[in-house]
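quick q for whoever's on today - can somebody do inverse folding on this one?? i tried earlier but teh output was garbage lol. tokens:
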């Protein structure tokens, strides 16, 4: 075969290589909680992230020690968020628990956290005294609040605490793209991550409604895995392979923003060695 043809063939094959990562990834939803520690050392967890193309990640955990284990090994990779949960038992009542408030305030003194969350909350509890105090603290210190809540609750949070930036976990989990778009229009302090939202591209094809909101609000979205159970670590590589596939169906600047640039802009890596 003439060399020029061979080169052309290799070029074609090269661009079509399945699994080739196109975009570096900022993953906005990783947990490294106690059950994960027993299975994966911090080094192993970090190598899974790297193997999935994740350059940096928002990490939170129950208890918080898991986040610290990863952060100590890789302070430029891990963007630490502090959950308002000392144990899983805090999930239900944290919104009005003065013990949780004291715990979070004490821990924030370390000055390393970039956000509070991920937390769960119903709209009825959005005005709880601990939520109020933590949201005010977040507003003052420019920390994000990562909220796993429905559309009624996120709207209530954004209305009650207008100085605070919210990172909406899972885009509300099951809400339509158009609803998410409407909220982005109304609330400039709302950001959205897409962990577990396989409806963005079910069957591998980017959904046209999601495409519309991504193109309209390219600076407001991030991708995420959500390692809410240990088995999610095993599928992280495949999950991000699918994410890369739908990112590749967007205009390049939009895809780059959602994959990496938004996370890097909102949570710049600490300087120094
Ligand atoms: Zn989660």
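ok took a stab at it. sequence:
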């Amino acid at each position: 075969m003439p060399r020029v043809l061979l080169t052309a063939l290799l070029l074609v094959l090269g661009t079509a290589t399945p699994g080739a990562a196109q975009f570096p990834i900022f993953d906005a939803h990783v947990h490294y909680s106690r059950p994960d520690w027993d299975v994966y050392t911090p080094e192993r967890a970090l190598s899974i992230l790297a193997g999935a193309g994740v350059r940096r990640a928002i990490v939170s955990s129950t208890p918080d020690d898991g986040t610290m284990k990863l952060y100590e090994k890789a302070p430029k990779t891990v963007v630490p968020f502090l959950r308002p949960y000392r144990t899983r038992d805090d999930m239900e009542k944290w919104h009005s628990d003065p013990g949780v408030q004291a715990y979070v305030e004490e821990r924030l003194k370390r000055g390393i956290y970039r956000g509070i969350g991920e937390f769960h909350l119903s709209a009825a509890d959005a005005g709880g005294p601990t939520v109020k105090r933590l949201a005010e603290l977040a507003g003052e210190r420019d920390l994000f609040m990562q909220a796993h809540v429905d559309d009624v609750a996120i709207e209530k949070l954004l209305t009650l605490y207008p100085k605070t930036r919210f990172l909406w976990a899972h885009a509300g989990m099951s809400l339509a793209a158009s609803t998410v778009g409407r909220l982005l229009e109304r609330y400039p302090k709302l950001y959205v991550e897409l962990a577990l939202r396989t409806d963005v591209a079910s069957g591998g094809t980017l959904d046209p409604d999601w495409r519309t909101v991504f193109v309209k609000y390219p600076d407001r979205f991030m991708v995420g895995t959500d390692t809410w159970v240990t088995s999610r670590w095993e599928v992280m590589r495949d999950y991000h392979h699918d994410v890369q596939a739908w990112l590749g169906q967007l205009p390049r600047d939009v895809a780059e923003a959602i994959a990496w640039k938004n996370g890097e802009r909102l949570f710049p890596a600490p300087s120094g060695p």
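fwiw The first strand starts at residue 25 and ends at 31. also The chain is about 45% helix and 15% strand. so keep that in mind when u check it
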